[in-house]
Structures are given as C-alpha cells and as structure tokens.
C-alpha cells in the first residue's frame, strides 16, 4: 500500500504556506472562532514578522443564524486586536431560505469574504479546512457517485479561484483537527464550539459520526485521485489547444483527430465544453455523456442534443453550439449587470434600459460571421449570439456618445468555472479562457505542487 502525504502539524502547514507564497502578499484569514480557523490565525501570526513582505488580515462572517453569532464575531475581533491583526466583520443580512440553508450560507460567506478581499486588495483568502473536512467531503461525494471515475473523490483542492479574480488557499488540508486543538492548548488559546457541528440534521454531521467508527482517512487514495483528476484535466486542455476552435464565443469545432484518442479525456473535455457553450454551471451528466459518446463513436453524420447544446457531426469534424430553444430576452436597468443565458455578463452603463436577447438569424450575416461553415450551423450560431437594443428613448447624453448597444459591456462567462475554479482544473480553465477571449486569470500565488515542473 502506497504511503499518503505526510501529515503536517499546524506550525508546519503555516510555515510551508509562508515559504511557498509569492511576495509581497496580503493574506485574508477567514476566522469563525472555531478551532480550525483560530489555529490557522495563530499559526500564521507566529511566523509573519515585520519586513517579511507579508501582511495578515482577518474577517469573520456573521451568518446571523444563531443568537450568539454576533458576540462570537466580536470575540474574534478582540483576539485579532490582541494580535495586532486588522479585523473585519460582515453580517449575512436578510431573510434566510427555509431549505438549503447550508449551501446558501456558504454562498453568502464567500461573497462577503470576497467583498473584504476586494476592499483590502488581498492576494488570497485563507481558510482552515482540515484533513477531517476533506474526509467528510469525499465520503459525501462518494455516496452520490461511486467509482474511480468520480472526480469528487479528489476532494477539495488546495487552491480555488473565486469569481475569476481572487484565490482561496487551504493550507490545513494536510493537518488534523486534533493536532490543531493540541496546538491551541499549548498556546493557551481557546476556541468556540458551534452547536451546529453536532446537529445530526446536517449531512456533514451525520457523515462525521460515521467516519469516527471507521478506519483512518486514506490520504494516499485521495492524493492518487487528485493526481488522476489533474492529469485528466491537463490532457483535456491539450485536446482543446490542439484540436478545438471557438468562433465568436458560440460555435465550437473539433477536428476529426480530436474525436479520437483516449475516451476518458474526450469525455472530460466534451462535458465541460458543453457546459461552457450551454451556460451550465455543472459539467454534462454521465447519462447525457454516455449518449453523446455512443453517438460519436458510431462515426456517422448526424445530430444529438444534450445539456442545451447541439452536437452536429460532419465529415470535417464535430460542431457544438447552444440550441436555440429557451434563449430568453432579459432587461438590464441603467447601471445594472445581469447574467444572460448563463453565458454572458452584460453591463449597461447608459441611462436607459436595454434588452439583451438572441440575435435574429440572417443568412448573409451568418455566412459572413462563420465562413467555411455549413449554412445551417452558421444560422444556429448567429441565433445563439447576444443582441442588445434599447427599450427606451435615448437621453441626450446617450445620443451624443455611442449607442446604448455599442457601449454595453459584454463579457463571456465560463459557467462551470466562473464561481469556483479548483486548482485541479486550472490549466483547462485557462485554455477555455483563451478560446473564448476571457480576461487572463490571476496567477496562482503559491508553488503549484500538483504538477511536475
């Protein structure tokens, strides 16, 4: 049996992060007051000194789900005051959903952390996720989809790009909660125990109880799954780079050579290519992928639709484009920003409303925009492009400047990667960004140990 990665003490994990991070850097530590995040804050503060090129900040998100939460946030603020670390409190305001509160709280937490990170121009957000959290995450994902092909068995990535602009780092993924609490005890530092962590209403708590009765977490298996996922993603990126073109952000073409080769690589590339073109946050599901792969491996010309995308097999390769059904118009108020069809972020800088919708297909325009493409495919591609018009009279200011539609800001999205891009998929995400003409991603601020140099 292969040995897994070495378990790191909190001090070793903090020291490794500080050694690996590019400088200068501003680290925003997410601190709830629990043992894991408090241990991370203390460990990092012990290693960061004046003149190191590193600055430490902290933020606590008050989810307002328990009466004690505001006092707990103030307790973290007091600790940060003693340590000389600037601290921010953000509260999740508004009505909470009756169901799915954990997922909603997670979304709110990341959104509010990003607000703080933007305000201080943080290099990275740092969280206290541990090996224990990793084990629970993998167990929950395995229960939903068994088998080696389940990419969820790789667990949480050491680094995740949020909103395509800020990195989140998890230096404690190689550390155990018990060791972190021993460290805090030696430091004579207490922590807050959240009662929701023992509430069996939550799936994670139930899984935690089950894992306590089982053998220790198999770090070697997790490391192997993470390496497998990274290698698969890198090969899918190579397939895209060598065999795929995307015209005007809507029409992808895979040459005949790209339709051959390793089936797992093709599946991975196609599942995410379909998600990007279809504006879906998740890769194409296994059942849909099975249908697509069977169709392609049959080698005959024809069409199949999956995940809102038409797969059109011709002699010169495979064309993929968003199907024309369900592309709905959307109003954008002055100064507003909306996500249209899951594929574009539209910003209206004018003083009049605008409407974004599908482009009315015109044969001459289609053939001009997509030369050397079969006319029927070119017509579908044009109809998937955004068309912007004003639904109000232009103001004097707007008339004096460019038209509303011309001045609107249209940015392509990478639907499956736009909110969270795990380090496993970084090379693939970058390749999609190149193909669609997206902004360049910020560089990973730490050494990337998941790939050989």
Description:
By secondary structure, this protein is of the alpha+beta class. Among the domains are: 215 residues, HUPs (Rossmann fold, 3-Layer(aba) Sandwich); 83 residues, no CATH class. Helix content is 40%, strand content 19%. It has 15 helices and 18 strands. It has a seven-stranded mixed sheet, sandwiched between helices. A five-stranded antiparallel sheet has the order 7-8-11-10-9, sandwiched between helices. Helix 5 crosses helix 7. The protein is globular. About 3% of the residues have low confidence.
DSSP summary, beta strand count: 18
What is the CATH C-level name of the domain at 10-224? Alpha Beta
CATH architecture name of the domain at 10-224: 3-Layer(aba) Sandwich
Largest sheet: 7 strands, mixed
What percent of residues are in strands? Answer: 15-25%
What do we call the CATH homologous superfamily of the domain at 10-224? HUPs
Helix-residue proportion: 40-55%
Which fold name fills CATH's third level, the topology of the domain at 10-224?
Rossmann fold
**Class inferred from helices and paired strands:** alpha+beta
Tell me the number of helical segments per DSSP (H or I, 4 or more residues long): 15
Spans of at least 5 consecutive residues whose pLDDT stays below 50 are 392-405
Report how far apart the termini are.
26 Å
Q: What is the assembly state of the chains in this entry?
A: single chain
């Amino acid at each position: 049996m292969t040995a897994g990665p070495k378990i790191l003490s909190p001090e070793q994990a903090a020291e490794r992060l500080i050694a690996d991070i590019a400088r200068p850097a501003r680290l925003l530590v997410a601190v709830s007051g629990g043992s894991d995040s408090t241990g991370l804050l203390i460990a990092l503060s012990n290693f960061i000194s004046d003149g190191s090129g590193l600055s430490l900040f902290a933020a606590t998100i008050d989810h307002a789900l328990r009466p004690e939460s505001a006092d707990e946030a103030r307790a973290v603020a007091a600790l940060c005051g003693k340590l000389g670390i600037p601290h921010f409190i953000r509260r999740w305001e508004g009505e909470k959903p009756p169901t799915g509160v954990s997922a909603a709280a997670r979304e709110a937490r990341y959104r509010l952390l990003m607000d703080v990170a933007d305000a201080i121009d943080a290099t990275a957000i740092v969280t206290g996720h541990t090996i224990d959290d990793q084990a629970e995450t993998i167990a929950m994902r395995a229960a939903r989809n068994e088998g080696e092909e389940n990419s969820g068995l790789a667990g949480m990535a050491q680094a995740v790009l949020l909103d395509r602009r800020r990195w989140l780092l998890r230096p404690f993924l190689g550390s155990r909660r018990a060791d972190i609490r021993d460290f805090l005890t030696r430091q004579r530092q207490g922590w807050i125990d959240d009662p929701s962590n023992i509430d069996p209403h939550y799936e994670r708590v139930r899984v935690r109880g089950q894992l306590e009765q089982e053998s220790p977490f198999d770090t070697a298996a997790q490391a192997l799954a993470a390496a497998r996922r990274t290698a698969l993603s890198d090969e899918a990126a190579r397939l895209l780079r060598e065999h795929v073109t995307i015209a005007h952000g809507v029409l992808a073409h895979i040459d005949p050579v790209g339709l051959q080769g390793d089936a797992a690589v093709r599946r991975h590339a196609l599942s995410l290519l379909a998600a990007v073109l279809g504006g879906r946050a998740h890769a194409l599901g296994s059942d849909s992928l099975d249908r697509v792969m069977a169709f392609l491996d049959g080698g005959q010309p024809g069409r199949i639709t999956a995940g809102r995308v038409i797969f059109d097999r011709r002699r010169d390769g495979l064309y993929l484009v968003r199907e024309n059904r369900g592309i709905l118009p959307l109003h954008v108020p002055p100064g507003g920003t909306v996500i249209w069809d899951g594929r574009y972020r539209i910003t209206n800088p004018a003083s009049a409303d605008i409407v974004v919708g599908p482009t009315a297909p015109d044969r001459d325009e289609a053939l001009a925009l997509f030369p050397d493409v079969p006319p029927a495919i070119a017509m579908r591609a044009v109809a998937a492009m955004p068309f912007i018009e004003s639904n109000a009279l232009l103001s004097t200011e707007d008339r004096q400047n460019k038209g509303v539609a011309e001045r609107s800001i249209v940015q392509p999205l990478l639907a499956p990667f736009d909110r969270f891009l795990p380090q496993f998929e970084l090379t693939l995400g970058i390749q999609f960004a190149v193909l669609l003409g997206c902004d360049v991603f910020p560089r990973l601020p730490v050494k990337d140990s998941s790939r050989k140099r």
